[in-house]
């Protein structure tokens, strides 16, 4: 029997990033097709009081609708979602997302680990977790959790990362499926 | 480190049923994703290695239940959290409330009281405090004790002071408290108009009518059905033309009541429309 792991249909791609990740996100978003078959969720570390400026910035470049998440927002494919500053993001089920303002994890809120774990439990093999540039260990444990639940793991090539601590740590710790360079990310998502 | 997954999904359901049957606290309509994290977290910090141990302790030790409730609910709060929200209260909402002879405000799910104290400061600075009453409620008696004491950690004051200034505060924030080693005590006058009491949004009903209800980052822990019920409770407790203020990422948009309310510019504040 052929393993269908590589071919299992991806429904959600969660991209976690910290310092130096915004450049990668901007490059990706410009090169997305105007129709993709998955939902894209961004979990980025940023200042607690940041306003909607990130949403506006990404929307300007994006061929797809960019939504900053409100509590209990229903996720749809072919859209890009941003986790709001100062909240953790959790999945209730494959549709509904909840926000949570509990204690910081890895000095971070939102924490990439928290969302990776929650998404892995709900989406299993239809989840892809992507970890980008950053100076913090947040996200690595979550990637392991995604693997354990048969999801796929992509990591930014540490050589291309502005701050390589996060991806380098992940490459060492996790059985990944792909190492990606910033300019390849959009193409991989377009193919899903 | 991520919390471990000690408790399975179906065990969470048993636990919710036990706590309700034994003690009357109803968590059945809490958002599962968050509740499960809290249960696993309490297993980690109180060193329960299995569901059976946690369950045994809860069922046999009523004292432990107090701690369970305290840890299972999220009590993360700060003074003037989201300063722009408080700026909107200060500049747009309080002037409208100023026309009432008595201003009644309900801070629902007030936790350790930081937002209630922040509102007391706003009212003082608007010269409305003398004719105001602030009701702070929470389901958790122990956080209300902290609120009642008016004592908060000194290390938070730098952040609170920055928030206060961003909210449009003109005074020296330290005028409002006296520092003592690693804690500060807020001015007693900020408690004069503050009424603190337990109230459970899940099971308790309306107890007064208000011109402003503030409930921020509480409803995110509820599922949609319970959110809708609590919105109705707020609606029943709000005078015509009163205001409902929610957390920065909470919305009335998904509720049936939305059509009876008008959102105040880009803030998460809604005004109840006049309908008889």
UniProtKB/TrEMBL annotation, chain B:
GO-annotated biological processes: methylation
Alphabetic keyword roster: Methyltransferase, Transferase
Cross-referenced InterPro entries: Bact_Chemotaxis_MeTrfase, CheR_C, CheR_MeTrfase, CheR_N, SAM-dependent_MTases_sf
Domain of life of the source: Bacteria
A Pfam family matched in the record: CheR_N
Residue intervals of the CheR-type methyltransferase domain: 1-252
GO MF term list: S-adenosylmethionine-dependent methyltransferase activity
UniProt xrefs under PROSITE patterns: CHER
Protein name per the record: Protein-glutamate O-methyltransferase CheR
């Amino acid at each position: 029997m052929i393993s269908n792991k590589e071919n299992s249909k991806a429904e959600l791609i969660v991209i976690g990033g910290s310092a130096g990740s915004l450049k990668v996100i901007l490059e990706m978003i410009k090169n997305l097709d105007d129709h993709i078959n998955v939902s894209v969720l961004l979990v980025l570390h940023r200042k607690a009081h940041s306003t909607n400026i990130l949403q506006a910035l990404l929307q300007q470049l994006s061929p797809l609708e960019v939504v900053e998440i409100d509590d209990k927002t229903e996720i749809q494919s072919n859209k890009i979602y941003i986790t709001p500053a100062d909240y953790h993001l959790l999945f209730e089920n494959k549709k509904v997302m909840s926000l949570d303002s509990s204690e910081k994890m890895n000095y971070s809120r939102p924490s990439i680990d928290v969302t990776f774990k929650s998404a892995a439990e709900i989406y299993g093999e239809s989840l892809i977790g992507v970890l980008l540039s950053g100076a913090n260990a947040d996200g690595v444990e979550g990637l392991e959790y995604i693997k354990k639940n048969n999801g796929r793991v992509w990591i930014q090539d540490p050589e291309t990362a502005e701050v390589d601590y996060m991806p380098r740590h992940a490459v060492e710790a996790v059985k990944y499926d792909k190492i990606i360079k910033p300019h390849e990310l959009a193409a991989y998502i377009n193919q899903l | 480190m991520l919390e471990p997954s000690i408790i399975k999904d179906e065990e969470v359901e048993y636990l919710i049923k036990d706590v309700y049957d034994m003690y009357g606290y109803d968590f059945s309509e809490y958002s599962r994703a968050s509740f499960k994290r809290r249960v696993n977290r309490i297993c980690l910090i109180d060193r329960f290695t299995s569901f059976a141990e946690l369950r045994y302790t809860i069922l046999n030790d009523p004292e432990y239940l107090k701690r369970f409730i305290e840890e299972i609910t999220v009590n993360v709060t700060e003074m003037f959290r989201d300063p722009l929200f408080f700026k909107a209260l200060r500049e747009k909402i309080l002037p409208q409330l100023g026309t009432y002879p008595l201003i009644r405000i309900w801070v629902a799910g007030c936790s350790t009281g930081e937002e209630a104290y922040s509102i007391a400061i706003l009212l003082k600075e608007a010269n409305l405090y003398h004719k105001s009453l602030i009701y702070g409620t929470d389901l958790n008696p122990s956080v209300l004790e902290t609120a009642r004491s008016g004592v908060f950690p000194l290390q938070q004051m730098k952040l609170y002071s920055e928030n206060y200034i961003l909210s449009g505060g003109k005074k020296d924030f330290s005028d409002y408290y006296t520092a003592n080693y690693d804690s500060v005590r807020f001015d007693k006058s900020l408690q004069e108009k503050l009424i603190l009491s337990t109230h459970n949004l899940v099971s308790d009903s309306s107890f007064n009518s208000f011109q402003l209800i503030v409930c921020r980052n509480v409803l995110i822990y509820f599922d949609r059905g319970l959110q809708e019920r609590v919105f109705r409770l707020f609606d029943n407790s709000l005078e015509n033309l009163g205001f409902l203020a929610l957390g920065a990422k909470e919305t009335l948009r998904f509720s049936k009541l939305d059509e009876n309310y008008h959102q105040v510019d880009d803030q998460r504040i809604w005004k109840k429309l006049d309908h008889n």
